[in-house]
């Protein structure tokens, strides 16, 4: 706490806290999680890079033979900053290595939205400011910034200094080798034969996904004629929260194997993405399209795509009533035929990793 005056001001009693020994980073992250009601390992790593001292030998060895440094999120940049302060020889090494920020999201925007709803608002504001400062520093320092969408690229470009390389847009990608496409009409027939539709949502325990899962749970309670499947950590997170009461037609399957995920992508009638917050692009949209799933989503849920509501997807608002109405309209929407389905699938197939790797690899090659 001597190194963290913010906690002394805003977390009364923190100076008397005694965390269990053995895993200080994990234990402190759990403490923050209780204060803020959200996963905090990433922020803890950024605020307390000293607790990652066990990583220093590995980091030094890696830097000794590296031609570039790529950060896939801003939080590890704090550890590089600490290394530069503690080891002058590595500060010089880092100064001469190209630094790349390969951003999945604009973490500043994402964390601001999540922390604004935190129970401990003062601590939440301080953490949001800390993330923003770190991501700004990294964005200015990096020789290359790669964003997943044009919208995110515009934000990062505003933080860059005059004369720096423009932000590169590199879409998120898919492993297309296992895709087994099924048309809208085939899925519609399948639902009619079964007597019910299957609505699928795939999401991690990240707060925007859990919020979407909570909304889907409300819809499930009102639509017993559908079966709702939640894959990924969002389902168990919803179960732990205990609210709302989960209905019998909502299946929280948690983490599954790739084979089981593919099974659900083949069996589902529609893919859901009723996001109310978030940043970056929603890769699940591309996966739904590649497999031939019609999509029901909010406008935010298809960010990064040039899809038109009513033409390419069923647009809903982030409310249970709107999603329920959208599901009722989805079966009619699917009767559009296979032309739209084929066009959306062709877009998704542009996101294979080999194609994306060539694009990003050319940019890296120009730096090294």
Notes on the structure:
The chain has helices at residues 5-10, 24-36, 41-47, 56-64, 77-86, 88-96, 107-116, 121-141, 150-159, 184-194, 207-222, 234-241, 258-267, 283-291, 320-333, 338-348, 353-367; strands at 69-71, 99-102, 144-147, 168-169, 197-202, 226-231, 250-254, 270-273, 295-297, 314-315. The protein has 368 residues and is an alpha/beta fold. The protein has a six-stranded parallel beta sheet with strand order 7-6-5-8-9-10, sandwiched between helices. Helix 7 (107-116) runs antiparallel to helix 8 (121-141), helix 11 crosses helix 12 and helix 14 crosses helix 16.
- Categorize the overall geometry: globular
Report the sheet-strand fraction. Answer: 5-15%
What distance lies between the first and last C-alpha atoms, to the nearest angstrom? 41 Å
- Total of helices: 17
Q: Please state the average pLDDT score.
A: 85
Order of helices and strands: HHHHEHHEHHEHEHEHEHEHEHEEHHH
Spatial strand sequence of the major β-sheet: 7-6-5-8-9-10
Given as residue ranges, the uncertain stretches (5+ residues, pLDDT < 50) are 1-16
Radius of gyration: 22 Å
Topology record:
Blueprint: H1 5-10, H2 24-36, H3 41-47, H4 56-64, E1 69-71, H5 77-86, H6 88-96, E2 99-102, H7 107-116, H8 121-141, E3 144-147, H9 150-159, E4 168-169, H10 184-194, E5 197-202, H11 207-222, E6 226-231, H12 234-241, E7 250-254, H13 258-267, E8 270-273, H14 283-291, E9 295-297, E10 314-315, H15 320-333, H16 338-348, H17 353-367
Parallel strand pairs: 1-2, 2-3, 3-4, 5-6, 5-8, 6-7, 8-9, 9-10
Keywords summarizing the entry:
368 residues; alpha/beta; 6-stranded parallel beta sheet; 4-stranded parallel beta sheet; 10 strands; 11% strand; disordered N terminus
